[in-house]
Amino acid sequence: MLKDKEKFKEMFLDRIQTIYGVTIEEASVTDKYMALSSLIRDYIYRNWVHTHREYDKKAERQVYYFSVEFLKGKPLGNNLLNLGLKDVCKEALDDLGIDLESIENIENDVGLGNGGLGRLGACFLESMASLGIPCHGCTIRYKYGLFKQKIIDGYQVEVLDNWLRNGNPWEVRKTDKSVEVKFKGKVRVNNKNGKMAFIHEDYESILAVPNDMPIIGYRNNTVNTLRTFSAEPKRTELDFTLLSREEVQKYIEYKHSVESISEILYPDDHNYEGKVLRLKQQYFLVSAGLQTIIRRFKKKGGMMKNFHEKVAIHINDTHPTLAIPELMRILIDEEDIEWDEAWYITTNAISYTNHTILPEALEKWNVDMFKGLLPRIYMIVHEINERFCKELWNRYPEDWDRIRNMAIINNNYINMAHLAVVGSYSVNGVAKVHTDILKNQVMKNFYDFSPYKFNNKTNGITHRTWLLKANPKLSNLITDAIGDKWIKEPSSLIKLTSYSQDSSFKENLFKVKKHNKQILADLIKREYNINIDLDSIVDVQVKRIHEYKRQILNVFNILNMYYTLKDNPDLDIPSRTFIFGGKAAPGYYMAKEIIKLINSVSYVINKDKIIKDKLKVIFLENYRVSLAERVFPASDVSEQISTASKEASGTGNMKFMINGSITMGTLDGANIEIRDAVGDDNFFNFGLTVDEVLSYYRNGGYNSWDVYNSDYRVKRILDSLIDGTLFGEKDKFRMIYESLLNNNDQYFVLKDFDDYVKTQVKLQERYKNKYKWLEMCTENIANAGKFSSDRTVKEYAKHIWKVKEVQVEK
């Protein structure tokens, strides 16, 4: 009924009047947004219920995807697009004198994530719904998300991201499905009928309350679910007049302790309290999720001995690894299943994706802290470790070094990545080179022990969000050329290769890019009062700020270009617009220094008239999905310059690629597969290879002072960080200077500098040939189909989860 414009207007007006008691003229933009969102949400209810009924009726295996992050951006636009309601909604609102874009702009980005992990999770959920794969996401309902980034005097300042301040019209609270999660206390062991029974006593009780959000498939009637859990006190109604002052204070402390669990993503863990809170969050998520899954499974008549045949639990990175001992706890303590059978069920139900080789991201928990917070779970982890080490002893007798290296518990720490590998039936990396590093370096002993577990699933992005929604003019151009089959079958984009020599197509592609640059330029002018040359090369690096991602290398090239132009202002080079965006973890001081450096360089360059506006540098504040949807379509160059071997995959590189940007990158992560897809002529490669980097690490690195002393450009740039000539203050960036020279540049910034600069020069020369550049853009778009998350989740469904697609009829 909403697909009829007149009916749409009628129902929207009725919603405004019945909910807010005002006329359309009196309604605020927020009123209109809430009314429109609730109207669309109610419209999908029937399909939401019908989808779950179809899944149950077909009795196929279902996937539960656990991740601490899901970054969906702003739901309204995506939901309208996938429902096929975007056009009728816009037309109906136009008739009422309402701008749909203004309503979409008022919506907050969903604050359930931080970076690539969350964006990937959101892409997977959209693809699984669009393909009809029975899947349910599970995460925490963070009250404040991560943080909203403010830039003050060039520095990052974190403020609360109160994304729920106006509520979330897309979620449905399911109080009746709440479950209890237990922390602390002690475990009493009883002998019951010749069997040991474990009774958890004197624990702190917390209520996990589910809230369900719809995940809408693209025009296929499928509506999957993202379930989020909020932590709430077990007792909510107390008569404080009957309590003593001490009892009131104790309850207030308990309430604060409980609510802090679902308050903010990634609490600072540089102190003991922060570490405890992170561990609480992780257990809270998996315990709440598994309890609701098992409750539903049993309600539908499932037998726990067959649980693994009907339920696939996927843990996205190490954060949800406690799903393994928690499932064991439920099976043994609550379902009265013997250890061996419980272990069989668990290790045939749970699969694991590894996202990193960085040591700091491969989580470890102190045994004493873990045992105090999760006494029963620790007992199970200890038993898993004992049995695993015994198995290792049988395979490798007296090889103590190997056994120690592979143990789950070692040196008073619990290694979560080891637990994830031991307790799952599948371990996958997220790009071919990343998986090879896992198998041959980081987890070589585990691969040697159980090679059948390891496999690769290269990441992907949902092209419907990152092309169809974010870049409608390019989408229309593609559809005019090859038809709309690519929307449901992204591999069809390959047909565009026949247009790479078509001058008319390329001229239209140029106009589309210019249009998107204008949109971004307007935003930058409005927010930062900086004018952008639309004919400049828009060169973008937007991602989490981290030393291994090497924003510093990008800045050093910009400074080199700046000094070159200062020496020769009339140099004939294309003007360049360098755009950065990304957040630094609150406790990561070097990353914060990098943000300050970018902003300081921006300040110096943007006001220098000598270089005749040939360089502009902008740091986009509070990088997020909705902002990314403006950046990717406008970009010419995608900076993917991490130290080779450090980036597991990357998905930003794919979003740039599908929008016609050319990659400037190291052969790292999925960059390698992008280069292989488009060919050397359509990719700017530089720097050390994975093997070269790993060889340097094995042999103690290189001497960064040698580069400083032999390359005058490097010396000039590094000296300017501390001598006051550029920034007017001595030692301003001493920390970065020391890191690169006295700490020997562990991410090879100086080692790769010369090759990076030469490749940037090559890029500029290539850009001068307009039609050659547009040919490269076309080839990148045409070959982007293989990097759709549709392809990725099909591989997960077939090779890991063993689930079938379910067609939901109208």
TrEMBL record:
Q: Does the keyword Glycosyltransferase apply?
A: yes
Q: Which GO terms describe its cellular component?
A: cytoplasm
Q: Which positions bear N6-(pyridoxal phosphate)lysine?
A: 655
Report the EC code(s) recorded for this entry: 2.4.1.1
Task: Give the matching InterPro entries.
Answer: Glycg_phsphrylas (IPR011833), Glyco_trans_35 (IPR000811)
Q: Which residues form the signal peptide?
A: none
Query: Which keywords does UniProt give here?
Result: Carbohydrate metabolism, Glycosyltransferase, Pyridoxal phosphate, Transferase
Cofactor(s) this protein requires:
pyridoxal 5'-phosphate
Q: Which GO terms describe its biological process?
A: glycogen catabolic process
Query: Would I find Glycosyltransferase among this entry's keywords?
Result: yes
Which catalysed reactions does the entry list for this protein?
A: [(1->4)-alpha-D-glucosyl](n) + phosphate = [(1->4)-alpha-D-glucosyl](n-1) + alpha-D-glucose 1-phosphate
> A Gene Ontology molecular-function term?
pyridoxal phosphate binding
Q: Which domain of life is it from?
A: Bacteria
The entry sums up its family as follows: Belongs to the glycogen phosphorylase family.
Q: What does this protein do?
A: Allosteric enzyme that catalyzes the rate-limiting step in glycogen catabolism, the phosphorolytic cleavage of glycogen to produce glucose-1-phosphate, and plays a central role in maintaining cellular and organismal glucose homeostasis.
- NCBIfam families given in the database record: P_ylase
Identify this protein by name: Alpha-1,4 glucan phosphorylase
Origin species, per record, is: Gottschalkia purinilytica (Clostridium purinilyticum)
